[in-house]
Structures are given as structure tokens and as C-alpha cells.
Amino acid sequence: MTIVERLVPDELWELFQRVVPAAPTRPQGGGRRRHGDREVLAAIVFVATSGCTWAQLPPCFGPSGPTAHRRFTEWTAARVWAKLYRLVLDELGARGELDWSRCAVDSVNMRATKRGS
């Protein structure tokens, strides 16, 4: 099992593919081959869980730190993380693997509206 497969198991990868936007096409063609989404996702997971910086990303992932960061930024703008979070919760809920009894709401915050004088 590779480090990519350990950080992004098949089940997570299947869910991720449902929310990640399609890769943009280059109208002029050519250029460098785009790194695979799974490798980039593994690099992002590694940075998030290890505490290293993008520049410290080991080369074993394939994409460079700047490439992983650029894709992270693109996916953040596309709300991929929120969609994936919701999809994981839905999947766990469907399996009966969420224990909602441990969730409690103890207060609600509301912003006061300003009234004109």
C-alpha cells in the first residue's frame, strides 16, 4: 500500500470524486501533465495532519508544495471541503455510525441588528 492509498483510502476517494470539479481544459493544448487529484488530495491531507508547510512537502507524493497549495485554493473556492464534509456525514449517518446523543447545543449566538435613529 502506498502512502497515497493510506492517506486517501478507496472509500474516501470514491466520495471525493463525487464533489471535486472537473479539471479545466487548456484551450491551447500542450503544457505539463496535470497531477492526479488523488495524489494532490493525499499531499493536502499530509500537510494538514503533519503540520509541515507546503514547501516542506516530501517529493514522494508527486505534486510540489506550490501545486498542492494551488489545487487546495481552487478546491476551497469551489466549496469542495464543505461538500465532502456533508457527504461523509451523510454516509456515516446512513450506516448508523453517528452518535448524535453526544452532540449538544448549549447556546445560540445571534448578531444584533442595528436600528436607525
Q: How would you summarize the topology of this molecule?
A:
Layout: H1 3-7, H2 10-19, H3 37-50, H4 65-77, H5 80-95
InterPro entries: IS402-like_dom (IPR025161), Transposase_6_like (IPR052909)
Domain Insertion element IS402-like: 9-84
Pfam families: DUF4096
The secondary-structure element order is HHHHH
- Helix-strand category: mainly alpha
Radius of gyration of CA atoms, rounded to a whole number: 19 Å
- Low-confidence runs of at least 5 consecutive residues: none
- Count of DSSP helices? 5
Write down the overall mean pLDDT. 86
The count of β-strands is 0
What is the assembly state of the chains in this entry? single chain
Name the shape in a single word: globular
Strand content: under 5%
Q: Main β-sheet, in a few words?
A: none
Helix content: 40-55%
Query: CA-to-CA gap between the ends?
Result: 67 Å
Description:
The chain is an all-alpha fold and 117 residues long. Helices cover 50% and strands 0% of the residues. It has 5 helices and no strands. Helix 2 packs across helix 5 and helix 3 packs across helix 4. The protein is globular and about 55 Å long. The chain starts with a helix and ends in a 22-residue tail after the last helix.
